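Attaching the record inline, Q. Sequence:
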Amino acid sequence: MTKPSPQTRTSKVTPTKATKTTRASDPKARSGATRAKAEVAVLRAGTPRVATVDRREQIVGVALELLAETSIESLTTRDLATALGLSQPALFRHFKNREALLVGVVEHARAQLEKTAVAIFSAGGAAVGQLEALGVSLLAHAERQPGLPRLLFASTTESAGEVREALRGVVAMQASVVAELVRQGQREGEIDPGLDAGAAATLFVGMLQGLILRWEMGGRDEALAERFQPVFEVWLRGAMPRGEHAAGEVAPASSERARAKASSVVALDVRPLLERGDEPLGAIVGALDGLPKAGVLVVEAPFRPAPLITLLKRRGHAVQVEALGAQHWLVEVVAGGEPDVEDLRDLDAATVAERLGAVAGALEADAVFIARVRGGVPRGLGALLKRRDVKVDALERSDGVTVVRLSRG
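Structure, as predicted:
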């Protein structure tokens, strides 16, 4: 028998389960999960170690590919480690357990959906056009990553704890974006101002979920986004004005508006709303509408609400975002965008009192000064400001920082 020449000799490689599957299947018929295994196997062959953040993203990406072929309840860390060519202990260096991994997958999905919403908000235009673009973009994204529907349709009885909360956040974020676009359409006179924006958003999101479910049951054999237009036209026809309300007379966004405080500095924790599956954007917009110009709204959220930040900035509000923890964010909003908030947190109480006293003495009629301080309003300063006919509104945030607003007039 003739031995292979050095140029043609190949090293013997023991096929992995993924490569066996690939060889036994027609490449055109391979599933997304099989392709992911093959791609990861190629990626790992002879490549240097990747950074932790990149590895986490790689793990999440392959998990989404596997979810395209299996339910969220059936996805195991053993299957994922095998697809990645890693051991389970190596996998757990990046995610402490299966629940943390699933939360990471859901957070990745939420971040992708946020990017879509931010891009649409940033592009501007009429609300109806933005709603249409949002629907097409979300469906196209689901088609590109069919593992996403597995997340959104995950069984609430099986997905518990942090995973369930993360899933609720994804759905609530979608509903919030749609509800705000509905309110914009009401202001523009293109959508019936008598409609409940939250109910209209629920119907819109349910419409998308129904299209995705039908697409899944049909074997994903058609372009998903192409199914949207006729269904959207039916939704829009039901939402159009019927002459019962004057254009621009928008119904209250939610009951939160009726309960909005008269104070010029207000706190709103949207975490309970998200836990109930409610859309929080209506409550945020309602609270802002109840504030005077240069009023302050402090929002607490379990994640960085990128679409909200973009929306509020486009409306002319000033926004400051701070992370207090991995799942605890503060969003500080100054209605109307002015004045700038002065940060006095690093100053001692005596210096803060001196600064606030000097500002109060020079404050003109209808002017506003806002600052962040530690330890609250200095003792004795309130009486001094009252004698100078300066109104003081103060709110202590959950991190112990106090927002102080001085106004005259």
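The radius of gyration is 27 Å. Residues 1-48, 245-261 have pLDDT under 50 and may be disordered.

More tomorrow.
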